[in-house]
Write a structure and sequence with these properties.
- The protein is mainly alpha-helical.
- The termini are far apart.
- The chain is built from nine helices and no strands.
- Helices cover about 60% and strands about 0% of the residues.
- Helix 3 crosses helix 5.
């Protein structure tokens, strides 16, 4: 485990994602980013092997936060309002990256893809046996999700790095909610909220044909 990493708590992520979805089934941006900051701390406390994901996530979080702090902040209150505003005003590069390389829609899509991998990985940890190999869980979920968007060199490096991952119980202990059993129980509470946020966002992007933004 990485020394000196900012303390991660699964409870913090649970609280953030619980607050993400409004009564209108819109995804609120601020709690989404708060949840992601917690997930970044989780990745960082596992060491440098996940830095290729956590560093990129931090960059994407900062871009979205800049939109939330701009004069157009209200347009970025939810993912739905962001998509509506940027599409209506031609602020999204739909075919190739050109005038709007860091649009909110493109930036959020990258976080969305990484969230899918983390969701699958954490679910694998939750349902795994005590002797389950974390390297296998991580590799299988990565290959089924985020690897599809990474160049070969990153996929190769990730595969090598995953081989030295700590045991399942060590992972669960990093969640700072008590025993491994208590961590599994809290994952059972948190993951449905993360899944719901992912599902709503996926449906929204599919509806507007934004899932393959360059």
């Amino acid at each position: 485990m990485a020394e000196g990493a900012e303390t991660f708590s699964l409870r913090e992520v649970l609280v953030a994602f619980t607050a993400c979805v409004s009564e209108q089934r819109e995804v609120r941006v601020d709690p989404y980013l708060a949840g992601w900051k917690g997930l970044v701390r989780f990745l960082n406390c596992l060491g440098t092997i996940f830095s290729f994901i956590s560093k990129d996530a931090v960059t994407k979080i900062e871009i979205i936060e800049n939109y939330r702090n701009s004069d157009q902040r209200d347009k970025y209150l939810t993912v739905q309002s962001m998509v509506e505003y940027e599409l209506a005003n031609g602020l999204v590069d739909l075919q190739k990256r050109s005038e709007h390389p860091n649009s909110g829609c493109r930036t959020f899509l990258r976080l969305h893809r990484a969230l899918h991998w983390l969701q699958m990985f954490l679910e694998g940890l939750r349902t795994g046996e005590d002797n389950s190999k974390t390297s296998v869980i991580c590799s299988e979920t990565y290959n089924a999700s985020l690897a599809n968007y990474h160049p070969w060199i990153i996929r190769k490096a990730a595969g090598v790095a995953f081989c030295v991952l700590p045991t399942r119980n060590t992972f669960l202990e990093t969640m700072n909610v008590g025993t491994a059993e208590e961590a599994v129980a809290m994952l059972g509470d948190a993951l449905p909220y993360i899944c719901e946020v992912y599902k709503i966002t996926e449906e929204l992007y599919a509806q507007h044909k934004l899932l393959d933004l360059p």
